[in-house]
Amino acid sequence: MTLPAEAETLARRAVEVALAAGATYADARFLDLDEEHLAVRNGEVEGVGVSSSAGVGVRVVKHGCWGFASTGVPEPADVEVAARLAVEVAESGRALQRSPVALADVEPVQGWWETPLAEDPFAVPLDDKLDLLVRATRAMVAVPGASVATGGFHAWRRRSRFVSSEGTSVAQRVVHCGAGIAATAVGEHETQTRSYPNSFGGDFGGEGYELVRRLDLVGQAPRVAEEAVQLLAADPCPAGTTTLVLDGSQVSLQVHESIGHAIELDRVLGSEAAYAGTSFLTPEDRGRLRYGSPLLNVVADATTAGALGSFGYDDEGVAATSTPIVTDGVFRDFLSSRETAAAIGLDRSGGTMRAQSWAHLPLIRMTNVSLLPGEARSLDELLDGVDSGIYLETNRSWSIDDRRVDFQFGTEWGREIRHGRLGRVVRNGTYGGRTTSFWGSLDALGGPGLWKAWGLPNCGKGQPGQGGRVAHGAVPARFRDVQVGAG
After folding, report:
1. Residue 2: inside a domain
2. Which domain holds residue 360?
3. Residues 93 and 149 grouped into a single domain
């Protein structure tokens, strides 16, 4: 892996200066960040964005208070200024301190980790990536009735060196990329959009450009556009309480909103309340609360190969791990940091602290919060025995309250289920419910052959706001007695 030779020297110097200024704990992150974003519309290039930045973020504890400062000028003098400023920030918080910071123990480590790549997305010629999107969007807009066709590609590279006053020094190179297309058909009274392979810009992973090649955007383009046109003539999704079958991509968002955010321990303890709400969970719920049916098994696994939420070490230098979240329907554990783990008496951090950049303070972020598969070998097996129901796929809209209890989701594509088979197409399908009762209605799950880690590149959290890239492994799933309708 490639990092400036002075990366570790600068990080170590920041820690030394902070300790000399009175900090009892200090860590420093040198980050070198690269991004590439491409957008094409109706066969024409709409935008090319390329950006890079490098800097150092310094985090300290003094008098039991946190302090943080950063610099986008990674030079010794500027890094020293940032370290001293972080200590001053910690000192300024003493008057408002409620309880001193305590950190769960972590074994100091020396190591490195990098995303396994078959084909570096930053090494693929720009013209080749644009040509793929141009051909895919032209194939969509060539379908009669398709008015707008868009395509996008995104790649991120994060090279880092983390050093702490406890003796940890780790380096990483994390690479993410992905792509997607969407077609919109415009009717007299409404528009309809179909996305592939998912909404939110497509699908993303901790892989190289091989992920994009597997998507076969050009080959899928005509079908995507035809389905958008088909939706204009479809009947609205019928309303009522019925059996609901969701595709894996929609299940992944359901996991994200009604499980992933609810189990973030900073939300549970109230420190995230101002921006994004809290959680209905409490520390006492561990091992006691029934979150869903016995079929519900969820893990937070930062070691999942190829997934967007995978890494070697978090931004506290804690090694990636897998944490059981829900086992046989019973809630087991939270996403935690060293501080929040200590606050509720956990032995160790869950290793989930990450920051968007060197200029941001690390926060608890989802890793790969994944639903484990069941036994159904195909969608047909999930449909078997359903006399009447609704099948929905690909998210269109979402809404959930600030405690992660009441929710409603809208989807792009729907089919009626009749006598165990998919029937007519329906549009604007929605469903809603309450978190634990909804997961309690989980009745069947797709098997291992249907499991996929869906990447979500735009999870927002924090003040100032930070974007995070996370993933959720999921399978198609069946739920009984769910309220559905047309939104």
Report:
1. no
2. 236-486
3. yes
Mean pLDDT, residues 271-299 taken together: 93
pLDDT of residue 355: 98
DSSP secondary structure, 4-66, as one string? -TTHHHHHHHHHHHHHHTT-SEEEEEEEEEEEEEEEEETTEEEEEEEEEEEEEEEEEEETTEE
Which of 178, 201, 227 is the C-terminal boundary of a domain?
A: 227
**Mean pLDDT, rounded, of the chain:** 97
User: Which amino acid, 53?
Assistant: S
Beta bridge partners of 395: 411
Q: Are 164 and 84 within one domain?
A: yes
Could you tell me what percent of the chain has a pLDDT over 90? 95
Q: Name the strand (E) or helix (H) holding 259.
A: none
- 252 and 218 assigned to the same domain: no
pLDDT tier at 2, thresholds 50, 70, 90: low
* 68-89: pLDDT as tens digits: 999 999 999 999 999 999 999 9
**Three-class SS state of 217:** helix
Residues 163 and 288 in one domain: no
Do the domain assignments include residue 261?
A: yes
- In contact, 393 and 231? CB cutoff 8 Å: no
Give yes or no: residues 182 and 293 share one domain.
no
Burial of 144 (0-12, 13-18, 19+ CB in 10 A): exposed
Strands (E) in 308-438, as ranges, are 322-327, 330-331, 353-354, 363-364, 369-371, 388-400, 406-418, 421-427, 429-434
Question: What is the CATH number for 73?
Answer: 3.30.2290.10
In this structure, how many other beta carbons lie within 10 angstroms of the beta carbon of residue 175? 22
